[in-house]
Design a protein that fits this description.
By secondary structure, the chain is α/β, with parallel strands linked by helices. It folds into 3 domains: 3-94 and 197-286, P-loop containing nucleotide triphosphate hydrolases (Rossmann fold, 3-Layer(aba) Sandwich), CATH 3.40.50; 111-187, Arc Repressor Mutant, subunit A, CATH 1.10.10; 329-375, no CATH class. 50% of the residues lie in helices and 9% in strands. It contains 16 helices and 8 strands. The chain has helices at 11-18, 34-47, 63-77, 89-104, 115-128, 138-150, 155-162, 168-186, 194-205, 207-216, 230-240, 265-268, 270-273, 290-300, 329-346, 365-375; strands spanning 24-28, 56-60, 85-88, 111-113, 189-191, 219-222, 246-250, 278-282. α2 crosses α3 (63-77) and α9 (194-205) runs parallel beside α11. The termini are far apart. It binds adenosine-5'-triphosphate and magnesium ion. Magnesium ion binds at residues 34-35. Belongs to the helicase family. UvrD subfamily. Residues 290-376 form the UvrD-like helicase C-terminal domain. Pfam families: UvrD-helicase, UvrD_C. Residues 7-289 form the UvrD-like helicase ATP-binding domain.
């Protein structure tokens, strides 16, 4: 294979892809080719620089992004590179734990609890420490424990900080958390958060194991970096600290996981954590027209914690954006219904399948469903 795939990149993308050693932050907006850059660089490392695939670790946040990454690497290289580790943080964490669980006191055949199973274990632990699980919702306790794990706060530290709290809920969580953690161990199970937290513990407590992975993964690439939490950041930091060949790709304006512990500081502080990091901005968007981008830029520029960047596109024109004010959700749903019907009548090529409606929370679908049902 030649490096012809480089020709289909714009200048900034090419710069990021050809970057070889040292830390690099690729800061880019939506649809600007971040994932394309990351996957092309992997191909470049393997083909141009002769880096064995098993020296590369590529991580992302969601299963969807991980699949997309794997598919693109496959189509760039034409074959599955052997030994390449590419997957979500959770999948990579589970893989490491499978190998070393006994050191932590679990066996190789541990189970991974899903949210439902872990909620049940929390309910039992709540009752075991003498609390009424109807009064203290296991779901709320679970969210709180999960938040603590995101921040790498273990039971001991949590007790220290909350056992004497004025807040009765925090005091209760301080009782349930250690009991829950103990019950996971007795059941030879990890919950989802443990898949991130436990590898960090493993590395921090076992220099030999850390050295092994640190040495093995000469190149680390992280997609969707804006969505990483404290635990994930620590995981990456530990692994990258020897070779320092770390590429992170992310959009500080696109962090959608703030509510689940994603730490925007990870991206804003990347240059502090990895001094000398090169920064490349991708500002060319390939998905949207200039009308859409102008509106997006105007909204995004109001964000407080952000790196300065402005998206641009070659796709000019497109329909103007309409802003409509409605007197309530029923009124709004009726207006949306009218718009759709008018469109389908005036443009017979369109069908309902060409229409999408976005809303912020699930609860908002109610008024829309009612309006559409009324129309048949
Ligand atoms: N240089 C380019 N020339 C033509 N098309 C491109 C180029 N770079 C990216 N694209 C296309 O733009 C689209 C978005 O690319 P990609 O998914 O890599 O962006 P992204 O920044 O990762 O998006 P997201 O914000 O959704 O994660 C894809 O269809 C991709 O093929
Ligand atoms: Mg992407």
């Amino acid at each position: 294979m030649s490096s012809s795939y480089l020709e289909s990149l714009n200048r900034e993308q090419g710069e990021a892809v050809s970057h070889f050693e040292g830390p690099i932050l690729v800061l880019a907006g939506a649809g600007s080719g971040k994932t394309r850059v990351l996957t092309t660089r992997i191909a470049q490392l393997i083909h141009e620089h002769g880096i064995p695939a098993d020296r590369i670790l590529a991580v992302t946040f969601t299963n969807k992004a991980a699949r997309e990454m794997q598919d693109r690497i496959l189509s760039l290289l034409g074959a599955e590179p052997t030994g390449l580790w590419a997957g979500t943080f959770h999948a990579i964490g589970a893989r490491i734990l499978r190998r070393h669980a006994p050191i932590l006191g679990w066996t190789h055949t541990f189970t991974i609890f899903n949210a439902e199973q872990s909620r049940r274990a929390i309910k039992k632990a709540t009752e075991a420490v003498g609390l009424d699980s109807r009064q203290w919702s296991p779901k709320a306790i679970q969210a709180h424990i999960s938040g603590a794990k995101d921040e790498l706060i273990g039971p001991d530290q949590f007790i220290e900080e909350n056992a004497d709290s004025f807040d009765p809920f925090a005091r209760n969580v301080a009782m349930v958390y250690p009991a829950y953690q103990e019950s996971l161990k007795t059941q030879n199970a990890f919950d989802f958060d443990d898949l991130l937290v436990k590898p960090v513990h493993l590395f921090e407590a076992n220099a030999q194991i850390l050295d092994f992975y640190r040495d093995r993964f000469e190149f680390l690439l992280i997609d969707e970096y804006q969505d990483t939490n404290r635990a994930q950041f620590r995981f990456v930091e530990l692994l990258a600290s020897q070779h320092r060949n770390l590429m992170v790709v992310g959009d500080d304006d696109q962090s959608i996981y703030g509510w689940r512990g994603a730490d925007i500081r990870n991206i804003l502080d990347f240059e502090d954590a990895f001094p000398g990091a090169r920064v490349v901005r991708l500002e060319q968007n390939y998905r949207s027209t200039d009308v859409i981008l102008a509106a997006a830029n105007a909204v995004i520029s109001e964000n407080l914690d952000r790196k300065d960047k402005t998206l641009r596109t070659n796709r000019v024109g497109g329909e103007r954006i309409t802003l409509a004010a409605a007197s309530g959700e029923t009124d709004e749903a009726r207006w949306i219904g009218d718009q759709i019907e008018d469109r389908l009548v005036s443009d017979p090529v369109l069908t309902y399948a060409d229409v999408a409606i976005l809303y912020r929370t699930n609860a908002q679908s109610r008024a829309l469903e009612d309006a559409f049902r009324r129309r048949g």
